């Protein structure tokens, strides 16, 4: 028997005004759109939707962004190449959270968004599923064997735990770079719809937001950032090609050019030769599967296994948090230093575990994004190589 009922599914997926989850979402600052959607001061306003409500957004002559409904205007905050807004009760407005990337100069950041024709939770769940990397993102970079980093994760010890702020995927395994040490991963889901991890392909950090437009559509945000240095034009190009961001079409609502109508640009010859999915770009591969599930997945029909521990923890967390909010108005609050809650990769002594690191029992941990557990370097490099092969095919 499935663990989650039809009623549970509704409570986790319905975000309109008056729904328990929708009211919880409205207590947080949410991305409204990427800054480049309104790049010209005094330019033409744009229509937008958020949590089922319609708004008009405009960049004023002084460069600030205004967001209005038919009744009133709402506060905005522009940071990290994203325009954020708060549409909840004014008297309960929280301070803007100091995400690690929102304090960086724009030159350190790549921010993109895609419109997806399905419920936000399908994307958020996919972000907490490490195992799909072995299959969906596999590539024959050296010709012959699928390369992916999930094997490195499976060789270590992994769990998912819930906290007040969300769910954390945690793992440790022997370090290939530091003898006698372990590598420790924290991949964080943060209420209501954010994830934070490390991206060693080029930049140092990766932030996702899965923001409901309505119950059957959402915007997914990809933010790549480097704390230490600006991203060069070549690095920005590699990110765009490796992840598939160069397929985004702003003229069609920021949908990807890889879509259901063209089988997400899947190519059978490509599949047989060097790209396991046959679809170019990591995010394009993800979005193809997420949207193929239909507008809203019926989770009451599922039978989950041990490998789905991240999804189970996420769903239980959402149901518990929504129930507490509906009963008492309790809202999980962010810490003053937001990076403490975000994703990280650390090097720890060989006799320590991820639980030791998480609970503060390890001294002198070394933060090292070069030790990416999912072999993101291989994954992205393979995707870039595949895109190069595709380009040569077309020439």
Number of separate structural domains: 2
Radius of gyration: 21 Å
Strand runs, count = 18
Major sheet details:
9 strands, antiparallel
Mean pLDDT: 84
Name the helix and strand elements from N-terminus to C-terminus, one letter apiece: HHEEEEEEEEHHEEEEEEHEEHHHEHEH
| Helix content percent band | 25-40%
Gross morphology: globular
| Poorly predicted runs | 369-395
> Ends: how far apart?
53 Å
Walk me through this protein's architecture.
This protein is α+β, with helices and mostly antiparallel strands and 395 residues long. It has 2 domains: 6-11 and 97-394, no CATH class; 29-93, Single Sheet (N-terminal domain of TfIIb), CATH 2.20.25.680. It has helices at 6-13, 20-25, 120-127, 150-155, 233-243, 268-273, 282-292, 309-328, 354-358, 376-394, and strands at 30-34, 46-50, 53-59, 65-68, 73-74, 76-79, 82-85, 109-116, 157-162, 166-174, 181-190, 194-198, 205-214, 217-225, 248-249, 255-256, 344-349, 366-367. Helix 5 (233-243) crosses helix 10 (376-394). The radius of gyration is 21 Å and the shape is globular. Residues 369-395 have low confidence and may be disordered.
């Amino acid at each position: 028997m499935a663990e989650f009922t039809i009623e549970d599914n509704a409570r986790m997926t319905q975000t309109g005004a008056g729904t328990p989850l929708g009211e919880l979402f409205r207590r947080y600052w949410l991305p409204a759109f990427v800054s480049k959607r309104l790049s010209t001061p005094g330019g033409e306003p744009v229509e937008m939707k958020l949590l089922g409500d319609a708004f008009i957004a405009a960049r004023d002559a002084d460069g600030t962004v205004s967001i209005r409904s038919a009744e009133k205007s709402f506060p905005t905050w522009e940071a990290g190449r994203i325009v954020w807004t708060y549409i909840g009760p004014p008297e309960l407005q929280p301070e803007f959270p100091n995400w690690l990337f929102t304090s960086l100069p724009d030159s350190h950041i790549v921010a993109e968004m895609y419109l997806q024709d399905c419920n936000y939770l399908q994307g958020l769940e996919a972000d907490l599923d490490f195992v799909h990397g072995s299959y969906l993102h596999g590539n024959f970079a050296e010709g012959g064997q699928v390369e992916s980093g999930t094997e490195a994760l499976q060789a270590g010890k992994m769990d998912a735990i819930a906290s007040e702020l969300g769910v954390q995927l945690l793992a440790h395994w022997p370090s290939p770079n530091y003898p006698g040490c372990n590598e420790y991963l924290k991949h964080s889901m943060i209420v209501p719809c954010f994830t934070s991890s490390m991206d060693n392909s080029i930049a140092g950090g990766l932030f996702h937001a899965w923001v409901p437009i309505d119950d059957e559509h959402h915007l997914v945000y990809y933010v790549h950032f480097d704390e230490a240095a600006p991203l060069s034009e070549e690095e920005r190009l590699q990110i765009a090609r490796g992840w598939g961001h160069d397929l985004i079409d702003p003229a069609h609502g920021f949908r990807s050019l890889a879509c259901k109508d063209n089988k997400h640009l899947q190519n059978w010859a490509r599949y047989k030769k060097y790209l396991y999915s046959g679809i170019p770009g990591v995010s394009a591969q993800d979005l193809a599967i997420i949207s193929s599930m239909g507008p809203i997945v019926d989770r009451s029909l599922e039978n989950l296994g041990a490998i789905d521990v991240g999804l189970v923890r996420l769903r239980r967390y959402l149901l518990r948090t929504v129930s507490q909010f509906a009963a008492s108005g309790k809202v999980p609050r962010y810490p003053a230093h937001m990076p403490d809650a975000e994703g990280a990769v650390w090097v720890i002594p060989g006799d320590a575990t991820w639980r030791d690191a998480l609970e503060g029992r390890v001294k002198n941990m070394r933060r090292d994004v070069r030790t990416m557990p999912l072999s993101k370097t291989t994954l992205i490099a393979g995707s870039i190589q595949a895109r190069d092969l595709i380009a040569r095919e077309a020439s």
